[in-house]
Amino acid sequence: MRLCLKKGPAVIFYFLSGCFFIFAHPHVFMESSLVFQMNEAGLENVEIRWTFDEMFSSMIINDYDANKNERFEPAEVTAIKNGAFNNLRNFNYFLYIKYDNKNYPVKSVLNFNAEITGHRLVYIFTVPVTIPVAADYKELKFGVFDSSYYCQIDYRKKEPVQVKDNPAVKYEYALLDDKENAYWGGQIIPKIIQLKFKKNDA
Amino acid sequence: MPKFLLISFSLLLFTLSVLPAQDNPFFSNNKSKEDAAAVKQETPAPRYPVFIQQWLTALNGIQRELNNRLSSLIRQIVEKQDPFTLFSLLVIAFLYGVIHALGPGHGKIIITSYAISNPLKARQGIALGVFISVIHTLSAIILVVTIYFLLKVSFIKYATEPKQVIALISYSLFILMGCYLLIKGIWAFRRKKAACGCAAHTEPVAASRLKHLFLPALAIGIIPCDGTILLLVFAISVQALWIGILLAVVMSVGMALTISLIGLITIGSKRGSLKIIAGKEGKKDRRRLLNFILETAGSVFIILMGLILLFSNLIN
Question: How distant is the Cα of B179 from the closest Cα of chain A, in angstroms?
Fold first, then answer.
């Protein structure tokens, strides 16, 4: 036991100095912003906007802007959707949605579009998230992160979240660290939006 | 027994720290795993201390800023060639390479296992890191130049398959390399033991020469670096291929520094652990036996890593 106390920590130190942490590192950097659309029945859908870094943007623009006019025609948008977006269904489109403590899977997305803004690629699409409003507050957790960590997704600094509200619905939201869903071996803590909404009694 | 448990625990921790590199999710050929994201989020993640999570988040913020600075400086130098901008670019490319190689997929776990399973000297650890980095970068340059200038086809459409084939070759080489190291180690151990009938006279296998390091470096480094690919593709898009290649070379110097350092730490860790367990001068038989166990474990680990990576890629 004495030997263990003297040499044990030293052995662990020597091995751990070789057991370096695998620092997470992405290859693609994205900024995300969200718009929650309410109607009189409750939450209707969420519009998502992703702006990519210049390096990844140039890869997509090079391959899909066939006529090199620095904007995407409808046929080019369709090609991008098929070749550089649809595979994200295998990653739940990087979306983490939980309502009433239950996962809300994303089966498909609507209104996909791709744009070029200031040399950067922008994806815009709508996720149908239909949740009826109730008399009491219901909580929706909504996060955007790539748990495979090929992509680093941050929220846009200016107005990352907007709510297109409706007088029939009362809501509040906050952007929080979600320690419970730390990913990439527990190294990265994602930020999620906690949206609470209920029937407006006023 | 407590020391053996400590070593076992450390090795287990070492193994658990492995996380493999990922394919681009926008256009990889993964089979549909719709529930994968939901299932992953249901599984509680291991808890790192908060200060480590915060530090990693800050580190990733630095990478994002370096990535942005690289692209804006490349545009700047195309418009206005001035020495200060070029110098800034070279410094940022070097730093980006250093940080980039800290992430998964740059052969660190294999170089660590190789350094454990082979009696390497410090200069060989450095040489191995340099060889890996050079081949890793060269592989990316060759792939990008071939697709854009020789074949003149869509990079996304035509690069994915060659990369997957190269990856399968690399993982197969891991398995072969691991088997070779395992057989070599066991053969040497048994030959010496048969000569005198005791483990005490088992000498460690002679340290590899520099030329012997080329094959493991090829096995590890042959998969093109995605970070280098993105940099080169961007450089081509702004008509600056030669600047892109120059920056890729500088990035590889940064990566070589990181990978070599990891090799050196492993070599030092192994020697330090052996000295602590066996003592500086005494208990040579215990030290040699432990050395054999470590080297065998390192070889087996390389084989297992190769098998896991090969079969998971074949399934996908």
Answer: 23
